Hints:
By secondary structure, the chain is of the alpha+beta class. 43% of the residues lie in helices and 9% in strands.
Amino acid sequence: MTEQYPPPVGCPAHASNGAVPLYGEGLSGDPARLYREMRRTHGPVAPVLLDGDIPAWFVLGYREVHQVTSNNELFARDSRRWHAWKDIPDDWPLMPFVGYQPSVMFAEGAEHRRRSGAISDALLAVDQFELRQICERLADGLADEFAGRGDADLMADYALRLPLLVVAELFGLPPDEVPQLVVDIAGSLDEGPGAIDAHQRVAARMARLVRAKHAQPGPDVPSRLLAHPAGLAEEEVVIDLLVVMAAAQQPTANWIGNTLRLMLTDDRFAVSLSGGRRSVGQALNEVLWQDTPTQNYIGRWAARDTQLGGRRIKAGDLLVMGLAAANTDPQVRPDFTAAGADSNQAHMSFSHGEHACPYPAPELAEVIARAAVEVLLDRLPDVMLAVPEEALVWHPSLWMRGLTALPVEFTPAYTPVPAPGAPTR
Length: 425
Ligand code: HEM
């Protein structure tokens, strides 16, 4: 295997190894092309330079991503293992992905199993049938706001709002606090100067929620985490709830947006015809293969010197998981025109192994995303793009694939005002 690629080059910092800069303008438009070229030039593990020319390895072979994510002891998650910290300024743009926090994300071994197991159990108690009803009600409420207008931006008005509303409900947050939380979470994801303040407000909100649930438990995720036999301290619950909320929000929102885009632009899904409904599952799955929200993920740190895809990896090297690139590895990529291809779910979009998106989060995300798409198509049966497909703009990010806006138009619908107490569906 190793001989078909360039010979091992050692440390990715060596300029002579042709390290590919993974930053700057122009990378996000057609990432699939970038991955193809990197695979051709470098094979399954490529030397790359992150912002500020910080060297790392980019793992883009499906087999190699599987190998890394399956071996937590060798490719570990605690970012304090990194040997490059002396070169990383406090305001490094990728700090949110690498800055160590005592959360489930950076925990390793038995401590990770304790934290992750509690999250899985708390999420497993969510009844998926009830969740579907919650999603329909909240999606209907959002659609009510624009259905009478005849036009909408399905990102800002819909996809980016729904997952957080759902999570707020699963967390038992008082409904009157949700609008401000939505504003603060969006602000905390911005790169502007207000981001830190916004993040602190979200964290303080979560700490208040956990204290309240301690005093008065309810049928919600925070109360179940607090009561879990893992014996989590209040601070651990707060920080892990923040992880769950952030992990659910952006990827699920972009899964919804990317699926709506596919259905609105690809004739095979023919949204404006009545056959659309049957294709929602296919579209959701196809997006995970070819336009997955979490394109690349930072990351893993080598616990000791080793080999991967013909490269010599040094202890403390950073490995970026090229999840989208692994999905398009010619060795595994399904042919979507072939029968049965739409049921193939062996993509890497939820990653793999101990640190993968924890069961049953992918299933919950699918309930949310499917409900979002189906409610929208039910409410706006003749919805169509308001701009040519080529005018849609992807966020300039190699990490999260999502549209800046998804402008649509449709026949304005009469929105009945429900009688007090009447069910909306
Ligand atoms: C209800 C929605 C979701 C919840 C509650 C959720 C929760 C989480 C949590 C708690 C983690 C951290 C796991 C750990 O470090 O042990 C995680 C990781 C992750 N999630 Fe999710 N997630 C959701 C939706 C999604 C979606 C829609 C995607 C992409 C399509 C996604 C992709 C990932 C990936 C790639 C990781 C990183 C795994 C790694 O380090 O290998 N998640 N998620």
